[in-house]
Structures are given as C-alpha cells and as structure tokens.
Automatic annotation (TrEMBL):
Residues where substrate binds: N76, H148
Active site: H146
Keywords: Hydrolase, Nucleotide-binding
PROSITE patterns to which the protein is assigned, alphabetical: HIT_2
SUPFAM superfamilies membership: HIT-like
Motif position, Histidine triad motif: 144-148
Name of the molecule in the record: HIT family hydrolase, diadenosine tetraphosphate hydrolase
Pfam families in the cross-refs: HIT (PF01230)
Top-rank taxon, per record: Bacteria
Domain annotation HIT: ranges: 50-159
Family annotation (InterPro entries): AP-4-A_phosphorylase, FHIT, HIT-like, HIT-like_sf
Provenance organism: Saccharomonospora glauca K62
Length: 184
C-alpha cells in the first residue's frame, strides 16, 4: 500500500518530495539561520559585528559563559560538538598580532579555564583549539578575532557527521550554557 514502510511504521506522502526511500530524516531547522547567513556581519565595522553586539547583552541571552577584563567566553551558536565555545576579545580586532599583551594573556587564560571547565562538566577526552585568521582560512566572522575551543570525545566522529553530514547535539544551548557558566 502506498505510504507504508515496514509493518508498523507509516509516513505521510508529501507532494513534490520525490520517491520515498528507506532513509530516516533528522530535521534541524535551527541550522537554516546559519545557512541563510542570518546575523552575519554586513561589513568590517563594529556596528554590524555580532561579537560586539553580544558583549552588550545580558549573559544568558548572549550565551556568555564568563567575562574577563579584556575577553569573554561565549557558546558557539552553530557548534561542532556540545560545549563548543569561543574566547572573544571585547575590542573589535581582526588579527591575532593586533592583540595587546594583556588581551593575549587573557585569551590564553580563558582557553585554559574553558578546558578545565569542560573536562569537569562533560569529561571531554580532548580538544581542538584554534583561530581561523581571514576568510581564506575559514573564518566565518573574519573582522573580529575569536578562538574556538571544541571538546572532543573518542568516537564523536561517527557515521552521522561523516556519512550522514548531520551533527547530533544532545543538549540545548541554554542548558549547556548553564552547566558551563556554573562550573566556571
């Protein structure tokens, strides 16, 4: 019978979606904001910079975990893994070489602190830490420096991201923020 799949599972046929197949779908509509480029800066100026805007919001709304004198730690809206955060200078600066000695030291301190907190909260097995300097290097927001801290676990690159091109995140960002901010 049309529309049946197996003995006890059914699906609704929808006009224009093609021939039904045996694949399951994981819907992630929140990713459309990223795909459409929503909230992406319209230029190099501070007025269109999401990091500059976040610094002026309250911590919970902005998903800020901690604030320092010259930098803050914030969750990535489009995380590679749960707990993926960024260390961001308050000052709108694009290049690592343009940081002051104080900013450089606090970026390093916040990175170490982030690693300790994530290990405590979620027992991460390892980390990817890095700066993408410039659009050619993969920076999504090249005009405002930000260092990624991505927790990793053995086996976290399983069939879902490798074959299915889908990342499964087991926790909402607000819940992740609360856990990390409390442990900070």
């Amino acid at each position: 019978m049309a529309g049946e799949r197996g003995e006890d599972r059914t699906f609704v046929e929808q006009d224009g979606v093609g021939v039904p197949d045996q694949l399951q779908r994981l819907w992630t509509p929140h990713r459309m904001a990223y795909i459409r480029g929503e909230n992406k800066p319209d230029g190099d100026g501070e007025s269109g910079c999401p990091f500059c805007r976040l610094a002026g919001l309250d911590d919970e709304t902005a998903l800020i975990l901690a604030r320092g004198e010259t930098v803050f730690a914030v969750l990535n809206l489009y995380p590679y893994n749960p707990g993926h955060l960024m260390v961001v200078p308050y000052r709108h600066v694009a290049d690592y070489t343009d940081l002051t000695a104080e900013e450089t030291a606090e970026v390093a301190d916040f990175t170490k602190r982030a690693m300790r907190v994530i290990r405590t909260v979620s027992q991460a097995h390892g980390f990817n830490i890095g700066l993408n300097q410039g659009v050619a290097a993969g920076a999504g927001i090249a005009a405002h420096l930000h260092q990624h801290v991505v927790p990793r676990w053995g086996g976290d690159s399983n069939f879902m991201p490798v074959i299915g091109h889908t990342k499964v995140l087991p926790q909402l960002l607000g819940e992740t923020r609360k856990l990390l901010a409390e442990a900070w």
